[in-house]
Structures are given as structure tokens and as C-alpha cells.
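Task: sequence design from structure.
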């Protein structure tokens, strides 16, 4: 028995998120089905990030155990001949038997993309949130700096989340604009349910002038979801990738 790690990119537009759900197609259900068919054994993957419906990824991570004799590096190629075109395996490799994609120390990076112009563009509709009001990117960037470091992010967590602690560390966050695209990029040791989308929604409130940058500090202190801005729509969010800090590196 060996443990295989997959790096998975997907367009989440037509899926009900990552996690298995009854009567709904998810990224996890598609992977399980096609891996089981390829390897001729019952396969159930474990994912690093349970992205919501409509959220995309360039590098989510999943692991599974198998007895297959197929060379592990060939699994990605074989899977990509079976998967729909909106899910693509970027890499397959063997990891230590005890490697767990959610329990191993890591840094996760997400981007939230905003199309900021007078009218929307059809080719951006699936992965970019359209905002027609002028955004003050400099103030959004100033506000983002208050989120850097270790904080209790309870104000930026969905009230439905069930977690032991709402303390997380943001290693890096920036807000940049190139042409009509505003990108919020954030790297942390983990994210609460809807945390990145609530951060994006709150920074948008700063961008349109409804909040001052320094009010982010007060929002953190209140530890109350009602203090922060709205949850930005899912389709603007993309998981960029995961860096594992201790183990879980592929065997070559």
C-alpha cells in the first residue's frame, strides 16, 4: 500500500465545491470515480482545502492510498485522459504513509480577482468578480496591512464554522491593480470558513469609501462577524497553491 499525492487544478464553476455531497457533483466525487475506474479499486481522496461551490484552484492537494502497480508519475497522465476538461491533475507523486494534506504544517495562497471597469467582460465572468464603482486600491492596500500577522480572525469567519480556534497567521497580503484587474493575494497558515471571501468583501468596502483603512483594526478587535463587510462572491476566488513546510515532499 502506498500513499499518492495529487496536485489538482480546476474551474469550479459547474461544481458544488470540493467535498462530497449527496445528489451533487463535486471535485472530490469526480476524482474518486475516475481514480477508482483507472486503478480498479475503491479510491477515496482526502483534500487539503474544501473549496466552496464556484471557487477555483491552480494547486489544491489530495492524497489517496492504493495498491496499484502503475508508476505514480504516470497516474496524472492517465487521469487527464479520463477527467473532464475543467479538472486537470498537475502532478502525481508518492509521499510518506502518514502524510495528511490538512494536518501537515503548510502555507496556503489564495487570490481574489476583481474586474473594475464600467462594463463587464464576458471572458472574465467565471473567475473574476465585476465591480463598476471606482476602487481606491491604495486605501485597500493600506487596510490589508492590518491583517498581516497572527490575529483572531473571528470577525472574518462565517458564523456557521465549527472550529476550535479562530486564530490564524497571515504571512503576506497585497492588493494590486493591473489594467482593469484588482487582485487581492493572501498567504497564511490556514483559513477559516469563508475567511478570504470576507476579507475581500471588507477590503472592497474600503475601496468604495464605506470603511476607512484603520477600521480594519477595530473589526479584528470586535471578534464579531457583523463588524466585517459582506462575503464576496465565490467565483472571484482561486486557490493558487500550497507549500508544505515539514514533510510530505514527493519521493523522486
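Answer:
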Amino acid at each position: 500500500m502506498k500513499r499518492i499525492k495529487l496536485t489538482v487544478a480546476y474551474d469550479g464553476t459547474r461544481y458544488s465545491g470540493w467535498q462530497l455531497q449527496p445528489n451533487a457533483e463535486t471535485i472530490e466525487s469526480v476524482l474518486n470515480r475516475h481514480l477508482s475506474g483507472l486503478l480498479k479499486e475503491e479510491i477515496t481522496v482526502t483534500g487539503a482545502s474544501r473549496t466552496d461551490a464556484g471557487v477555483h484552484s491552480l494547486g489544491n492537494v489530495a492524497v489517496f492510498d492504493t495498491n496499484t502497480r502503475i508508476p505514480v508519475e504516470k497516474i496524472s497522465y492517465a487521469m487527464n485522459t479520463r477527467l473532464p476538461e475543467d479538472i486537470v491533475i498537475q502532478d502525481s507523486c508518492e509521499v510518506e504513509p502518514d502524510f495528511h494534506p490538512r494536518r501537515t504544517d503548510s502555507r496556503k495562497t489564495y487570490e481574489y480577482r476583481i474586474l473594475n471597469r464600467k462594463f463587464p467582460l464576458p471572458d472574465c465572468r467565471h473567475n473574476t468578480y465585476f465591480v463598476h464603482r471606482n476602487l481606491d486600491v491604495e486605501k485597500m492596500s493600506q487596510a490589508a496591512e492590518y491583517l498581516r500577522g497572527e490575529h483572531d480572525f473571528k470577525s472574518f469567519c462565517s458564523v456557521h464554522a465549527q472550529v476550535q480556534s479562530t486564530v490564524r497567521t497571515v504571512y503576506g497580503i497585497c492588493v494590486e491593480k493591473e489594467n482593469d484587474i484588482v487582485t487581492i493575494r493572501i498567504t497564511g497558515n490556514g483559513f477559516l470558513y469563508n475567511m478570504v471571501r470576507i476579507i475581500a468583501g471588507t477590503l472592497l468596502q474600503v475601496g468604495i469609501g464605506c470603511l476607512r483603512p484603520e477600521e480594519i483594526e477595530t473589526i479584528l478587535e470586535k471578534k464579531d462577524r457583523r463588524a466585517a463587510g459582506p462575503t464576496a462572491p465565490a467565483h472571484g476566488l482561486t486557490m493558487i497553491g500550497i507549500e508544505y513546510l515539514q514533510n510530505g515532499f514527493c519521493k523522486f
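The first strand starts at residue 2 and ends at 10.
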